[in-house]
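Weekly structure sync, notes
Attendees: PL (lead), two postdocs, one rotation student
Agenda item 3: pending single-chain targets
PL asked that the sequence for the first pending target be pasted directly into the notes so everyone works from the same version. It is reproduced below exactly as submitted, 360 residues in total.
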Amino acid sequence: MGAAAADLRPGALRNLYSPPTGKLLIVTDPQTRIERGTCMRTPTIGRRLTPRHFLLLLGTAFACSAFAQPGAGRQSLHPVVHADTTALRHTLDSIADTHKGVVGYSVIDLETGERLSRRGDETFPTASLIKVSILVTIYDLVAKGQLSLDDPLTVLKIDQVPGSGVIQYLHNGTILTVHDAAWLMSTISDNTAANLLLDRIIIRRVWAKMDSLGLHHTRVHSKTFLRNSSVAMDSSVKYGFGVTTPNEMAHLFELMAQGKAVNSAADSAMLDILEHNTTDFMLQRYAGGARAAHKDGETNEVRTECTLWYLRNRIVACVMTKENKDQRWILDNEAQLTMANMGAAIIAAFGGVPPAPPEG
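Predicted structure, written out during the meeting:
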């Protein structure tokens, strides 16, 4: 497999466990319901994406983003939890020690400022997790007036790449907007969407934005499935699509939560998009339905995910794995189970999923 590939298994469309038949599948029904001011979606598996469903999916992007709340900061009605982070570190390290591969993590309690990490400053391949840096750069350029979310992007046959996503199946000449592409890149990890955006903004602008935030090891190298577009070939060969450290990616999510990655309104909009990520088989698997803004990445040897959980405290958790021995594309892949168990431990340490607020 090419190291520049952000997501493998053509035709999987985030449903990693359906046969790679090349048929168009999605893992989330585009129908939505509004629940306590949050746009929710009803999960389904293996549904064909008809043109009508695709239009509904894009409509969902606009409908849901309308409910993004401006501003950042703690809004929980629950008292702050003071977790036993020494015990949590021991639990996480015990899980990581048994994993057949390399595990790094970074956890930040945004309410108390406590931090814990393992291999926090070590570089890891990101797979599609690096798409968060593209998303942040897009919104930064919009905030500066250099780009509009309504700017059109024309899909040509030469743009379409395999792996996750739906744009690869659309007809030549389809016109999307920057917002459409950003939504699809972030929620179903659409590889073609990421490439269209990188063509528009150029890769080095992503580097410059990450540098401005102090994230000097967070780099997207090339377009997906197109290593010949790399701006850092040696690093592309070593890490693939992108590279970061657990601490840097956790800090990027921390900045978004604080309204400091771009600005309060833009960061809220980005977190709203990331709340609609369809992946739920790693950190979210045993999270008990906790509200989360998150992004993930997968290749044969790599599993990564970073999340902002809205618990009694707001918790950022990034877990990255590399050199994994288990390279099966199944639900119970060892790295996915490792990350699921780590996610459950973090949720439990901070008091579990808080009860929903009373109606009215």
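Discussion points:
- The chain has one domain: 77-349.
- The longest strand covers residues 25-35.
Action: rotation student to compare against the earlier draft before next sync.
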